[in-house]
Design goal:
Blueprint lengths: L7 E8 L6 H18 L2 H9 L4 E6 L2 H13 L4 E5 L11 E10 H8 L6
Parallel strand pairs: 1-2
Antiparallel strand pairs: 1-4, 3-4
Amino acid sequence: MSSETVAYKMVILVRQDLKLPKGKMAAQAAHAAVEASIRSPKEHLKAWHQQGQKKVVLKVVDQQNLFKYVQMAKENNLTTAVITDGGHTVVEPGTITCAAIGPDDEKVIDQITGTLQLM
């Protein structure tokens, strides 16, 4: 399947148990998007960029739940990025706040994260 026929997107999974303030959550989601973009194969990144860089932010219950989805993504050969906070503001140093999956094939991502709720 060529990159022209694949719809690309990225999902960002945010832990709900941390109850992050909106600004902190936005910053962590941005970190995840940037890190996943850096890790993504160039052809995926180019196609995703040309298609408008679709991103969806989804809720996960806690760290264990976040890792469950990241592991499923890895098993499907999707790009992933897990974000660990430096602990300078709201949470303790080393706290895992969120993760990104993609940019990759939207259909494959949806098979993994399609039941999660939007942020």
